[in-house]
């Protein structure tokens, strides 16, 4: 069950409440206590107060003071609930938390030493009011709640707009609060029944506006019983009825495919804005054709702008003279359907040059003449009689000119960037032979996400009827087969394999057979989910396999032919099942790894994200499927989609609502769990031990956080009480880090120094291994000519980077400017707030550039890279990347740590302000020294941080964990 439920506001005791007594390093908050009705409650927020700061993440722990070392994590909490009672203290932001025990939350046997603790998840600072002793009475109440659930007097059951259904209990009226303001009373029935009573409430028409609204059920005293967010439409007319009975233009925002239409328009406009890409000249016509119901007959007319019949106009597709893709569309009659498909191709944004070949397979409805008149540039191949889908595709492929073939049914509508996405796996994986799209029904449901062939030879469309955004179907993966309704293959491979096998004429099983031929030739078959294609299934060939006429009957005829031909190649259970499908849907893998991190990697924002992607890619290359679960459960659009293109299953809300629930459901399926950051690991380990004890545990801490904090404290020169508190915090972080390392099977570290520290501190109890780092640079560095200025790049949400720039501007930059007034310092990176950017930008010669999409431009543009770090730990990604791009660097000793870069050879290392000035001026003034040092760093980076080295290190770690891997990765 979920760890957090809605809760009533708490209350402050006394009238003279002050924040001072509840302040702790980095936060202010209080554990207020426990009640049977309200659960465990309190509040917390960052200190100093930051109105726009994200909610604090907290850990609820249970400790036994009489049995040291028995601390258990109960749950993770977010301090994000409204607390209007705190506003008099200046706390306007939501900062409350409330927790009820559920059956999955640990509760050890009662003992007199039991206490509850609430700590900040990042840093481990304990709230005021914590620890809270568990006396026998409180323990009994918690145990009762754990077994039977919180005492609740009502809940919602369902919404059938405009009626909201639910239930209450007892004689007191309930209150329905709408968007936090309007409230409606819900009276119990008379006579009052025993037990729960149902209600249905008519919602105000003011809420029926097509927007999302917050509905909350409360008691008369304000206790929250249930809440949800619901989209409330302003009409209840089905989309199909609107198309049939209303007049165009239709309100497309209500169409099941509105999201895809909008995505196409948004992409066209974005490309026009960024690159000057011209919009399709027929865009209004294309929009009109696609918003109308799918036509079945042509007769030379189609709906005009006002819905009246008008003559068909020509469609102008952007046919390329030198295409990369040949789109082959086999058709037999139903020209109006084909015309709509061509309109969809023109409407779907793509920058891939293509040609279109329509194979007219013996049509008798004037298809060939209509295409000649209405689709200029489209090549038409004509069969005198119908030879069937199989041979029509072969005829089109034989006439194709492009390196890639894309087979496309005429009853389909491609969506935005479909060709880019279909070709992506060919660029990403060299062994790719065949790629299939994600097929959608016209109502937006999933039709196919790659195919499974069971051990008995029976094919399945995986995901059929499901949600196309479900993480289980939303990542690229190897599959048994893909549908010929929308697939891509290299033309050379098609010709080598002989295309579709003639024994599967006229239609059906030719695509499944082709996939098996592709795999037999040593290539992979892949499904790519972001290539979305709407498929009006059955329009081309019908839907009745038992009919005496029509192509659909050959589905039953050709099935036994396929099963006999490939009987020796079938894998998996001979008994198809939905549970079994989840296991065999991922072909070509040796194991399953769960990758846990605090958030989704964003490699253009911080080096840690780059490292995470490197480690994920290395695991994949060694034969592992990777599932990523960011603990914040956030879907981050382009970042999440890029991971899905890479073949990573990206979990996010609302499909996953907690790590605990996910592990309870799927924890047993993982062979390896890869943990990053000690705070993530500390929260996850108790859950893993409970739900995934079979998994081997590999922990990457990025760097030793307690070492980083110790260096930061020394750099700040803290003494007295501040120094003592800082050292206490260091000791606590050190304790937590080492505790995690003792519980895992292997700890990755980028630094020989840190591995030695870990082994010494744990007396060898924690096994360690060098963590792979891979960096990709240019084939040759950018030349010296045209470069100017100094550059620093980093994420300023990371304190060591802010401190480095502050110290450099105070201690070094004034002296450098005094000697070279023309010098400029360029500051790049994310996470820089406006106040700090303004202050730094006001310094003479300093240019605050901010976030940059491609860091390679930084390394190619400037004369020198500087990294004046005074605190931090581990390997510095910015330093490694600069070396890989051949830009000379001046580094502090700490910035050079763990890299192996040597002073005077690959870099210059400066220990004092005078050293910094001499080193910078030397590389600014001496072109020969600049070229020699840049070349040495470039060669060192290519030899040290290569992909081959990274694969070897990751393979060695898997060997130590006694886990399988490919011996020669693709």
Name the helicity range. 25-40%
- The portion of residues forming beta strands comes to 15-25%
Give the biggest sheet: 10 strands, mixed
Shape: globular
- Point out poorly predicted stretches: 1-17
Short description:
With 970 residues, this protein is of the alpha/beta class. The strands form 9 sheets. Strands 18, 19, 20, 21, 22, 23, 24, 27, 28 and 29 form a 10-stranded mixed sheet that branches. A 7-stranded parallel sheet has the order 32-31-30-33-34-35-36, with helices on both faces.
Description of the molecule:
With 970 residues, the chain is an alpha/beta fold. It contains 28 helices and 42 strands. The strands form 9 sheets. Strands 18, 19, 20, 21, 22, 23, 24, 27, 28 and 29 form a 10-stranded mixed sheet that branches. β4 (56-64) and β5 form a beta hairpin. The protein is globular and about 95 Å long.
In terms of topology, how is this protein built?
Elements: E1 23-24, E2 27-35, E3 39-46, E4 56-64, E5 72-79, E6 96-99, E7 114-120, E8 132-133, H1 136-148, E9 154-160, E10 163-169, E11 174-178, E12 182-186, E13 196-202, E14 211-219, E15 224-232, H2 239-245, H3 258-275, H4 283-291, E16 301-303, E17 309-311, E18 325-331, H5 335-347, E19 354-361, H6 367-374, E20 379-383, H7 389-399, E21 404-408, E22 412-414, H8 418-428, E23 432-440, E24 446-448, E25 451-453, E26 459-461, E27 477-478, E28 486-490, H9 491-497, H10 510-520, E29 524-535, H11 554-565, H12 578-584, E30 591-597, H13 607-621, E31 624-630, H14 638-645, E32 649-650, H15 659-666, E33 672-676, H16 678-691, E34 696-700, H17 705-716, H18 720-743, E35 746-749, H19 752-761, E36 768-770, E37 790-793, H20 799-811, H21 813-819, E38 825-828, H22 834-841, E39 846-850, H23 856-861, E40 864-867, H24 877-884, E41 889-891, H25 893-896, E42 908-909, H26 913-925, H27 927-944, H28 947-960
Parallel strand pairs: 18-19, 18-21, 19-20, 23-29, 30-31, 30-33, 31-32, 33-34, 34-35, 35-36, 37-38, 37-40, 38-39, 40-41, 41-42
Antiparallel strand pairs: 1-2, 2-3, 3-6, 4-5, 4-7, 7-8, 9-10, 10-13, 11-12, 11-14, 14-15, 16-17, 21-28, 22-29, 23-24, 23-28, 25-26, 27-29
Helix pairs in contact: 4-5, 13-28, 15-16, 16-18, 17-18, 24-27
């Amino acid at each position: 069950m979920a760890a957090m439920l809605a809760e009533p506001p708490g209350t402050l005791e006394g009238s003279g409440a002050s924040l001072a007594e509840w302040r702790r390093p980095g936060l202010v908050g209080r554990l207020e206590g426990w009640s049977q009705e309200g659960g465990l409650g309190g509040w917390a927020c960052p200190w100093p107060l930051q109105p726009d700061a994200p909610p604090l993440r907290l850990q609820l722990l249970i400790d036994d003071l009489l049995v040291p070392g028995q601390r258990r994590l109960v749950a993770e909490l977010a301090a994000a609930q409204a607390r209007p009672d705190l506003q008099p203290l200046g706390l306007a932001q939501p900062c409350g938390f409330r927790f009820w025990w559920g059956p999955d939350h640990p509760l050890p046997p009662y003992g007199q030493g039991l206490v509850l603790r609430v700590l900040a998840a990042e840093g481990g600072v304990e709230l005021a009011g914590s620890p809270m002793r568990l006396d026998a009475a409180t323990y009994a109440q918690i145990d009762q709640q754990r077994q039977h659930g919180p005492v609740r007097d009502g809940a919602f059951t369902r919404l059938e707009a405009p009626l909201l259904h639910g239930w209450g209990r007892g004689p007191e009226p309930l209150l329905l609060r709408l968007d936090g303001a309007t409230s409606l009373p819900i009276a119990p029935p008379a006579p009052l029944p025993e037990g729960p009573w149902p209600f249905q409430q008519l919602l105000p028409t003011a809420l029926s506006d097509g927007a999302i609204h917050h509905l909350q059920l409360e008691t008369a005293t304000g206790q929250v019983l249930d809440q949800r967010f619901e989209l409330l439409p302003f009409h209840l007319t089905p989309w199909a009825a609107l198309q049939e009975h209303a007049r165009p233009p239709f309100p497309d925002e209500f169409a099941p495919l509105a999201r895809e239409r909008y995505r196409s328009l948004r992409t066209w406009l974005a490309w026009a804005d960024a690159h000057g890409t011209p919009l399709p000249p027929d865009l209004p016509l294309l929009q009109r054709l696609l918003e109308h119901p799918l036509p079945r007959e042509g007769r030379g007319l189609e709906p005009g702008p006002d819905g009246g019949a008008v003559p068909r106009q020509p469609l102008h597709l952007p046919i390329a003279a030198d295409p990369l893709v040949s789109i082959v569309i086999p058709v037999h009659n139903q020209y109006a359907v084909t015309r709509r498909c061509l309109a969809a191709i023109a409407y779907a944004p793509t920058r891939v040059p293509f040609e279109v070949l329509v194979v007219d397979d013996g049509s008798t409805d004037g298809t060939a003449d209509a295409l000649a008149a209405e689709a200029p540039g489209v090549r038409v191949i004509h069969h005198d009689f119908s030879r069937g889908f199989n041979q029509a595709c072969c005829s089109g492929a034989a006439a194709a000119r492009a390196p890639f073939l894309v087979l496309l049914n005429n009853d389909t509508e491609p969506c935005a960037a479909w060709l880019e996405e279909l070709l992506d796996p060919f660029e990403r994986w060299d062994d790719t032979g065949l790629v299939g799209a994600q097929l959608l029904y016209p109502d937006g449901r999933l039709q196919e996400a790659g195919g499974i062939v069971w051990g008995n030879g029976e094919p399945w469309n995986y995901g059929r009827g499901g949600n196309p955004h479900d993480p289980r179907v939303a990542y690229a993966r190897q599959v048994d087969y893909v549908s010929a309704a929308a697939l891509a293959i290299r033309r050379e491979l098609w010709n080598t394999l002989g295309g579709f096998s003639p024994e599967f004429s006229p239609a059906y099983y030719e695509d499944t057979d082709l996939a098996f031929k592709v795999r037999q030739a040593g290539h992979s078959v892949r499904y790519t989910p972001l290539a979305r294609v709407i498929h009006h299934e059955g329009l081309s060939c019908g839907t009745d396999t038992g009919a005496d006429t029509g192509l659909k009957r050959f589905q039953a005829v050709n099935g036994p032919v396929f099963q006999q031909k490939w009987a020796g190649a079938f894998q998996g259970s001979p008994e198809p099942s939905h549970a079994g499908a989840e296991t065999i849907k991922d072909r070509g893998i040796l194991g399953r790894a769960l990758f846990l991190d605090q958030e989704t990697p964003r490699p253009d924002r911080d080096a840690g994200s780059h490292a995470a992607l490197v480690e994920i890619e290395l695991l994949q290359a060694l034969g592992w499927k990777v599932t990523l679960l960011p603990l914040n459960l956030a879907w981050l659009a382009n970042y999440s989609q890029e991971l899905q293109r890479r073949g990573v299953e990206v979990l996010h809300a609302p499909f996953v609502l907690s790590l605990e629930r996910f592990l309870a459901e799927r924890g047993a399926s993982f062979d390896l769990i890869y943990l990053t950051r000690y705070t993530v690991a500390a929260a996850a380990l108790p859950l893993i031990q409970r739900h995934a004890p079979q998994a081997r545990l590999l922990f990457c801490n990025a760097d030793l956080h307690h070492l980083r904090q110790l260096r930061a404290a020394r750099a700040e020169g803290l003494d007295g009480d501040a120094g003592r508190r800082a050292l206490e915090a260091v000791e606590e972080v050190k304790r937590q880090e080492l505790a995690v390392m003792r519980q895992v099977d292997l700890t990755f570290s980028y630094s020989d120094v840190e591995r030695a520290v870990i082994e010494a501190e744990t007396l060898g109890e924690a096994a360690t291994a060098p963590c792979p780092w891979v960096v990709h640079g240019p084939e040759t560095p950018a030349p010296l000519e045209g470069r100017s200025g100094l550059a620093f790049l980093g994420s300023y949400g990371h304190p060591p980077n802010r401190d480095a720039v502050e110290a450099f501007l105070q201690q070094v930059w004034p002296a450098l400017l005094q000697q070279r007034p023309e010098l400029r310092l360029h500051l790049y990176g994310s996470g820089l707030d406006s106040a700090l950017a303004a202050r730094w930008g006001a310094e003479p010669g300093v240019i605050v550039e901010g976030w940059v999409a491609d860091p390679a431009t930084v390394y190619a543009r400037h004369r020198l890279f500087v990294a004046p770090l005074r605190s931090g730990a581990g390997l510095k990604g910015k330093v490694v990347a600069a070396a890989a791009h051949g830009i000379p660097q001046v580094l502090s000793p700490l910035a050079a740590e763990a890299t192996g870069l040597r002073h005077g050879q690959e870099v210059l290392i400066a220990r004092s302000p005078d050293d910094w000035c001499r080193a910078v001026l030397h590389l600014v003034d001496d072109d020969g020294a600049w070229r020699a040092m840049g070349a040495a760093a470039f060669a060192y980076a290519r030899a040290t941080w290569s992909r081959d080295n990274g694969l070897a290190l990751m393979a060695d770690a898997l060997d130590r964990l006694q886990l399988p891997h490919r011996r020669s990765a693709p």
